[in-house]
Amino acid sequence: MITVTGTVRTPLEAGKAFAYLSAFEHTPEWDPGTPVVKKLTDGPVAVGHRYHAEAEFRGKRQSLTYEVVKLSGSEIVLRGENKSVISVDTIEVRPAGSGSEVQYTAEFQLKGWMKLAEPIARPMFQKLADPAMDGMKRTLDSLATHAN
After folding, report:
1. CB–CB of 5/111 below 8 Å?
2. pTM above 0.70, yes or no
């Protein structure tokens, strides 16, 4: 398994940060590696809701179907899958001073013959983290500025 993590601090209040990030369809606004996310289930986010996502990896788009598998007031866990990978994304938001701290973890389990490429693929997955975390911070900070 390949695990990628990152943490950002933002002046955006924790409840607002979580409301924004748990709406998974907002992901293309902050993650350049995921340019497409379409909500497939109507209504407010809930366990069982599904999304179609397209992730950019090494210049190619990979389609995944994600499902919300856990949702609390401060944590959302989504499980995505396609023919070559299972991805579990966890977003946790905690209050930090007057703002919040966001912990993002993505776990990738390669399938089939792709498992053999895991040692080679690991650094490629790690490279996805910095642009995503930078985009998340920029977007949350911008939301905090516009909220005031």
Report:
1. no
2. yes
